[in-house]
Design a protein that fits this description.
Layout: H1 4-34, H2 41-48, H3 51-58, H4 70-74, H5 78-89, H6 98-105, H7 116-125, H8 130-137, H9 146-174, H10 177-189, H11 191-197, H12 203-226, H13 232-250, H14 257-276, H15 284-302, H16 311-330, H17 344-355, H18 358-377, H19 381-399, H20 412-431
Helix pairs in contact: 1-9, 1-10, 2-6, 3-5, 6-7, 9-10, 9-11, 9-12, 9-20, 10-20, 12-13, 12-14, 12-15, 12-19, 13-15, 14-15, 14-19, 17-18, 18-19, 18-20, 19-20
Amino acid sequence: MITEHGHQRRVLPLVLVPLALLVVVVSISRSRHDDKRPAEIDELYWIGSAYYFDLAFVRGDWKHPDWQLLPARENPPVGKYLIGAALYLADVHITSPDRLGSFFMAFHDWGWGKGKAREKRQAVADRMSPSARQAMGNGFYQPLTRYELRVGRALMAAFGFLCALGIASIGRAISGPRTGALAALAFVLHPAIIGIYTRVSVDVIALCFSILAVRLLLAILDSTWRDAGLSMSRAAVLAIAMMGALVGACGSKMNALIVVALAASTWLYACVKIVLSKGEKSSRPAWALGIALAAAPFVFIALDPTLYPAPISGLHALTEEHRLTALIQKEFLVGNDSWLPAGSPRAFAVASLVGIRAELFLLLAVAALWQSAVGLGRFSATTVVCLWWWIGLTLVVLWIPFPWGRYVVPIIPPGLLLVAKTLLELGGSFCRRPDHPPLMDGG
C-alpha cells in the first residue's frame, strides 16, 4: 500500500526531468531566435569580465593594475570567475581587457558622465590593444563569437536549473514536494527569470547561491523548531557550506545581501531562543550560523584582489560605483527605462515586474500576508521564507533605480514559494474528504 507520504516522496524526482527539459527548451528557443540578431551589450561586459579569471587563476597575477579598473571594482569577482572557468574549459581564453574596453567605447559619446566617472571609463578604453581599437574605429571589430555566447548561455541555463532544484527543495521543506514542484515550474517560466538564465550575466549565479544559502539556513535551524539535536560534525559541515553559499552569492552580486540580512535575523532568533530556554536548547545552530556569518566577509575579501590595497574603500566602491552609474544612466534613459523616483513609482514597478501584472501581484501579496500570519504562531521553515520575502521586498523597493526585471529576481523565489503553498493548501481544503486528516505542515 502506497501511503500519502510515500506518494509525496515520488513527486519531486518525477518533476526533475520535465523541469530540466523545460529549461533546455526555453534556452534553445531563445538562442535560435538570438542567432538572427547580435548579442546584448551586457553580455559583452560579462564575457569580457572573464578576463579577471585569466588574471587570477591562469596567470596567478593578483597584483596587476587592471584589478583597479572600474569593471573590477564595481562588481565582485566570483561570478566573473565562474564565467571565465566555463569559457576556459571550452577552450575560450579571455586574455585581455579588449572586450571590456569595447563595451565602454559603445557609450563613449553619451554614457560616460563627467569628471572622475569619465576618467574611470576612459582608463578601461585605454587598455584596448591598438589593433582592437583600430578595428573598432573602422567598424570591423567583432568582440564576441557565437561560440562564446553559446558557452556563456549554457552556463546560465545550468545555473537556472540549479535554482529551480533549490526552490523545489525549499518548497519540500516548508510544505511538501508538490509545493516545491509547483514553485519550481513557475520559477522557470517567469519572464524575469527567463531573462537571466538565457543571457550571460551574474544575476542567475548570485540567485543560485542565495537559494542554496536559504536551503542551508533551513537545515541549520531545523533542530530549533523540531526540538531535535544537531551533531557537532553536521553543524561544522553546515557552517562551512553556509559560509561558502554566502560568499558565492554576495561574491557574484551585492543584491544577495538580502540573504545575509535574512541569515542575521534568524541567527538573532536562535540566540534569543537559547537564552529564553535557559540552556535547555542546543546552541549549535546559533554557533554554526554565527561562524558562517563571521567568516564569510574574510573569505569574500580574500577572493577579491581589488580589495587588497584598501579593503574599506574597495567595499564602498562595490555599492557606490553602481549608484554613480545609475545617476549617469538617469540622464539619458527615457520611456519605459526611465529613472524611478522613490516611493510609489518604485513599489508599483516592483509589483508589475514580480507579478508580471500589478493585478497578479495581489495574489502574491495575499499569500505572503496569509503565510506570515500563520508563521507568527510558530517559528518554522515557512516563517523563514516569509522573512526572506519581506526583507527582500523592502530592500528592493527602497533601492531599485530602473524598472528592469533583473533587479527583482532576488524576491521572486520566496514569492512563488508562498503562492504555491497557499494555492495547494486551498486546493487541499476543498478536495479533502471529511474523514481525511490534514497532513502535517513540513514548515
